[in-house]
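Take a careful look at the sequence and tokenised backbone pasted below. I need to know what the token row says about the fold.
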Amino acid sequence: MPNASAPGGKVLISVLLGTFTVSLNNSALNLAVAELMAIFDASATEVSWVVTLFMITMGMTMPLTGYLADRFGRKRIYLLGLWGFLAGSALGAMAQSLAGIILARGLQGVAAGLMIPLSLSLIFSAYPGDRRGHASGIWGFAVMIAPAIGPSVGGLLLEVSHWRALFVMNMPFALLGLLCGYRYLSADPANQRRQFDLPGFALITLGMGAVLFSLSRVETLTDILRFQASFPLAGGLLALVIFVRVEQRVRSPLLDLSLFSHPRYRLSVILTCLQSIILFGCILLVPLWMQNALGFSPLTTGLTFLATALAAAYCSPVAGRLIDRYPPQWCIGAGLVITMASLLGLATLTEATPVWMIGAWMGLRGLGLGCAYLPSTTVGMRDLPEPHVAQASAMNNMARRLVSSLGIVALSIYYDTAMQAALRQGMSYTEASAGALHPAFLALAVIAVLCLPLAWRLGRTVTAPPEPALTTAPPRRLE
């Protein structure tokens, strides 16, 4: 039921301000890498920690959101995250060294790990089930549009000001989000009896941190075979396997893995994980083609991604309304077909392909993204009881990050191997790049095709008889 004390629209705006701030900051800061290297006389590897540490700390914090929200209340934890992001922005703006910036980004990652999983939970608490698609579609608009304008905003600030402005720009949005949050978000009762699962926390934190760290350092087959990458990767994966076993035996697990026993949620997670490979795969492959092979500027490359983000932002609210009114498999399926068509178009790129054509294919990809990506998550979680949404969102986000990281590593290794083989055969760099990219885009198109039956099955779970209601009681200890 809608939250009577906090009208849905005001709750939605309050949450949008926070998530918009996080997304805008991340995309804008990517442009500062070259400037930070020059200012602090640092290598690309050292400066890459500005991005890497944020991703690692966010992934390590997400598993805690379900416990913290239950133990202390969603409003309190979400606003704590927003305060943390504001503090991280202030520290970044005042930093006198690269280490200070990296530390600030680590704090921002912790804050984002608290905020992102709770965003949909807070929104869903303010809307009934038959309007949650529309609400999440509007939220998706902000999530899509922020990365689109981030590079432009970041480039403009770097042109007229200083890299510190990239941190300062977060502060007005964060302060406004705090004001709205304290006024419009309703406090829910805290479960003082909720116990903390220390073994589970240690295992999931170690596992997520080690895996994300190792994958962030891998670009070639040689990289992944090195001890510095292979050892933490193997250790992290082992910790995650042990975590799953431990969580099945504790009375109050950190993450309720029994949620995966419900077909609708399980299918939605699988579907979004596969689509995240396509999403981040294109983010990797298109710049390799446009900048490394054809020599286009970052600005031109950014404009092609702007087409994707604008199209996705436009479609997201429309798709949200459609999945509220009609069987969701039609909207999600149409999005996947459009995505497949755009990937097949990208697989035909040649040296003679004009920039506008690349932008058109990327815009078409944005239409597919808006119709299929976020709706898949919304359908899987919109009918869950409120106490489970924060954990469900956290597990969805963690699964997507792990799977997309593995997918990016696989594509990077394939691209590097195929490029080296083609260059040894005497091909030009552009020919070798095209020869490597075409099969990669076709492989992503195949993933889109594989998603179609999953989308159909997901839609069937909505039209089928209701699933058994989830209970909030802790699982029994297995002897």
Residues 386-424 form the longest helix (39 residues). DSSP finds 18 helices and no strands in the chain.
